[in-house]
Amino acid sequence: MSRIFFLLLIPFLVLSTKALAQCNDQLVNDCALNGGDNVTYIKDFKAKLAKGKRGSPAPTAQFSMLLNKGSHYRFGICSAVEYEGKGVLQLYDAERMYGSTYDFTTGKESPYFDFLCKKTAVYQIFIYFQDGLEGCAAGIVFMVR
Amino acid sequence: MFYRVFITLITIIFVSCNGCVDSGKNPIEESLNTKDSQTPVVGTEEMGDVIDNIGSPVEWANMIKQNGVQFSKKYLAPTDNIDDLNTQFRQALALGILGADLGYLNMYSRTSSILQYISSIKELSDELKIGQFFDFETLKRLSTNNENLDSLTYISVSSFNKMDKYLRERNRGNVSALIVSGLWLEGIYLATQVTKEIPNAKISERIGEQKIVLGLLVLILNNYSKDPVFKEFSDYFNKIYEELKKVDITYKVGEPKSIVKNGIMTIEQTEESIVKITPEQLKSITIIVEQTRNKLVNAK
After folding, report:
1. Of A113, B168, B215, B291, most Cβ neighbours within 10 A?
2. Strand partners, A99
3. Which residue in B has a C-alpha nearest to residue A99's C-alpha?
4. Residue in A68, A74, A116 closest to B268 by CB
5. What residue of B is the nearest CA neighbor of A63?
6. Tell me: the pLDDT tens digits for B8-27?
7. Closest chain B residue to A101, measured at CA
8. Number of Cβ pairs closer than 8 Å across A and B?
């Protein structure tokens, strides 16, 4: 019984770590060491954004990164606990969005998504906060081994 | 209150001392020690973006390992000549080269050799006044006790990311460019040495794709080419680029596919870059990379 309870608890423990740390290097450390099994941290992107204006698009931080063909990447985001804003990370190339930690249509959030890269190129990473709220987040890129 | 004033004073002293230079060094050394020696043609922000994209010290190593290649210490750069590197130019380049080797050692969990490399990296980063970002004590403990290899890799890689970020924020992008160049050069050196002994289509393809990556890197290096030392250095990379430019890269279009794999949304790209690299091209690239890397590693 206690084993079942523990197993049921795991997803909550894992998900809750995504919003435990404050807006500092600890946030990156916590996030970078919670990417799952068989992953290696490659890079982090920190974004601290003010609250957006009503009727305007949510403030967004933009970064770029070279991704290599044949690599399996994992993108994750962790939001600082002292801010209301929940961070969203999106991956784009010049033409399209490939992945997002937030699904607009269903409203479903996920701390990670994986990307199997088949084209070496510079990709864009966007970080913003849901509903344009003020927030601080660390986006992490892992390589899946 | 006192604590805040103290921290503020320390910060002011620290930031202002960033501009301090040692007397008795030549002008190139001075400029390399402090900030960019000339105004880059490419904007600082774009430079930062480009430089951010190059030289992950673990990606090459991971690819080599995934393709079943055994670890070999013979590919690694020596650490016994660190004290002979008497210019910041050489120190920055060596820092990048050893950073790539550290990534290789991390990927193969060679903790017994790691200590030697992190000691040299610490020495070089101290010389370049960025040693505060290299957590030597933690890395030493992790490698000595052979514990938590993921943390070891994380701290190693994030130290390099922090150094790079700090240098760019302090207008020392030229030093950052040298470190990244070292990382890139050692990465492609490892890959070409491996394919020289064990031909491998995937690694060869990744080598050919460096046409794209080096195209970005030479853009950065050429920005500093008014500096004679940098000019000589960027010429080496331009020569490698001349060989890589002969590789044919075409693109196949396609829509991405999404599947949920092990509970994680996984997006598979179907748009693809197709690399055609001939054995002759690979051989020429291998030769010029080997010559350049060995010349730079053994230079003092």
Report:
1. A113
2. A91
3. B267
4. A116
5. B49
6. 444 443 333 333 333 333 33
7. B265
8. 110
A71-101 pLDDT, tens digit each: 999 999 999 999 999 999 999 998 899 999 9
Number of H helices, E strands in chain A: 2, 8
Distance of CA B36 to the CA centre of its chain: 19
Phi, psi of B32 (to 5 degrees): -70, -30
Nearest-angstrom CA–CA distance, A98 and A92? 6
Closest CA to B188 of B205, B165, B173, B175: B205
Q: Is the minimum CB–CB distance between B259 and chain A shorter than 8 Å?
A: no
Residue of B nearest to A64 (CA): B49
Instruction: For residues B80 and B99, give the distance between their C-alpha atoms in angstroms, rounded to a whole number.
Output: 15
Residues in chain B with CB shorter than 8 Å from the CB of A36 are 264
Distance from CA of A54 to the nearest CA of B (A): 29
- Most confident range (mean pLDDT) of B54-63, B114-123, B148-157 is B114-123
User: Token pair for residue B26?
Assistant: 């030549």
Q: What is the CATH number of domain A2-144?
A: 2.60.120.380
Q: Please answer yes or no on whether B158 and A65 come within 8 Å at the CB atom.
A: no
What's the CA gap between B122 and B127, in Å, rounded? 9
Q: Yes or no: say if B54 and B184 are a contact pair by the CB < 8 Å rule.
A: yes
CB contact under 8 A, A119 and B49: no
Which of B23-37, B42-56, B73-87, B265-279 shows the highest mean pLDDT?
B265-279
ipTM of the complex: 0.81
Residue the block writes with tokens 């790691």: B114
φ, ψ dihedrals at A70, nearest 5°: 90, -5
Q: What is the pLDDT of residue A22?
A: 79
Helix (H, G, I), strand (E, B) or coil at B41: coil
At residue B19, φ and ψ (nearest 5 deg) are -90, -5
Q: Is A14 on the interface with B (CB under 8 A)?
A: no
